[in-house]
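pls read this protein.

:::
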Amino acid sequence: MVKFSNNETPSLLLEEQGSDPSTPAAGFWRLYTKSGGLYVIDDAAAVTGPFGSSSATGQGLVDFDFVKRTAGDITCNSTSWATTGITTIVLTASAGDIVEVHANCLWGTEAVTGCLDFATIVSGSPVNYLGASGGGSDLGIQGLVGVASVTTPAAGTVMYVLQSGDISTGTVTLRVQYRTTSAANKTLRASSTQPFHWSAKNLGPAL
């Protein structure tokens, strides 16, 4: 077995591994590299890494963006989930990362219920909905529902673990989707005096 003590070593050449090595014996850790960078595995088979990467476990915020829509109110009248037309958010991401998405808005008083949800988008089409399943009877994110016949201030946050199908070329694209419970018009406020705010954070992989 090769051992290092107090010898000065200008560099250490490690062969890149295709997968995590076997769990070491009790009281030992293994240091190794894979395509993503430098990793360690402890005697309980817990893997930490890659070190020095923004997406490494426990290394904090990976990416963040926000949108303030003031271009004008949005008329919602589709009973199937559809795009609001509000600017999408694109974040650097990998499968297994946790995203936190939030919106703050105001619904009009029309006698129909309005629903909002966030969806991951690939090639222009929704892949997964973050709040519910994207079904025809889903209300989306509960805190963002616009109640019929009431001016409704709404705010809601959802957490979601990204799947491999949500990722395209190292990023995830997020979009605000809506549906109404009938085909009548429902106003989603998005003007300079009543803007629509939404934001998204990639918090990296779960600890």
Q: What stands out?
A: The chain has two domains: 1-53, 63-205. The first strand starts at residue 30 and ends at 34.
